[in-house]
Design brief:
Layout: H1 2-16, E1 24-31, H2 38-55, E2 62-69, H3 75-87, E3 93-96, H4 100-113, E4 117-119, E5 134-136, H5 141-154, E6 159-165, H6 168-183, E7 187-194, H7 202-211, E8 215-219, H8 224-235, E9 244-248, H9 257-260, E10 268-271, H10 280-293, H11 301-319, H12 326-333, E11 338-341, E12 344-348, E13 355-367, E14 370-382
Parallel strand pairs: 1-2, 1-3, 3-4, 4-5, 6-7, 6-8, 8-9, 9-10
Antiparallel strand pairs: 10-13, 11-12, 12-13, 13-14
The protein binds P-hydroxybenzoic acid.
Amino acid sequence: MKRMLLAGAALLAVAALPAKAEDTVKVGMIISLSGQFADTGTQMLNGAKLYVKQHGDVAGKKIEIIAKDVGGINPPVAKRLAQELVTRDKVQFLGGFVLTPNALAVAPVATQAKVPTIIMNAATSIITTKSPYIARVSFTLSQVAAPLAEWAAKNKINHVYTLVSDYGPGNDAEATFKKVFTAHGGEIVGSVKVPLKNPDFSPFIQRIKDAKPEAVFVFVPAGEASVGFMKAFAERGLNKAGIKLIATGDLTDDDVLTAMGEPALGVISTHHYSAAHESPENTAFKKAYADVAGAGVRPNFMAVGGWDGMHLIYDTVKKLGGNIDGDKAMAFITSGVTIQSPRGTIAIDPTTRDVVQDVYVRKVQKVGGQLYNVEFDKVAKVKDPGKS
Ligand code: PHB
């Protein structure tokens, strides 16, 4: 009897042990779960978690996400977290990255440790050039700003004022918009860069109003900044003055569009994902996402980035039969892979490791009483113009 009890206790102890290290592939995600960008990080993590929940084990391996909160724009902390994830937690992949400065800080760690690093949002063109172990499934600002500039020029908008956040993605958005818009005969009548952290938009917006452009082109990072901009735009009466608002889809982010309310109506934007995208894949994605994020939570492009990034990781683990080697992983990732995303089919460019995808032109409209970015045109298979 005593022996049987002992044997039972030993069995229990075995069952309670965590999965052995060799049975697990670890993915370290560096994201903001607190501060100004907490909502973006939460959406991205939920997207990644959803993929794991839907697909379970792959090549006999459990996929474990280790999420680290970088707390906003903080390159030194991002770098330290990456080092800890690689050396202490022994992650086989790095992922996440809402913000460009944090992604750039991690590039040397990815290179040194030969850890495949999947960018799930950060959208400055240069990021993928900083390490051969970095690939991006999200988008670049140049990739979406170029089609918007073309659309504006073709739609009788001749004079534009630009307003962007003063850091990498803002610089790219402004430079590409200007280049393409002027090449199509448009004129830039003024440009302003606003601080990234908690900016007060009112004085900048007043200056734009006084310049009387036909339209203002905007990039601010999705979330609090986009809500703040829209509020100031309406308060200063630019829409009533007939000044059109054209933007990268970060401004009319699905996560905050409802909070923006009526002033957002009619905004034209270009982006890679809208919750209103009509496809069976997106319908299924939205339904499943609500189970992870909570009923009524609309997935935004951060959530899709998390889901697609995890999709690429799963495909890589499968291809390598569960034995992750950084160089072999990158060889697969640069072999012409495609992913069926809720946004449509995306591909990873074998040379640049950057995403190639359709870019949609959208207009904020009410659908069933709620605001959505309704797609009405698209430019197919756009590469990052920042690389050519
Ligand atoms: C970035 O920092 O690269 C970034 C952040 C938020 C966005 C887009 C780009 O909406």
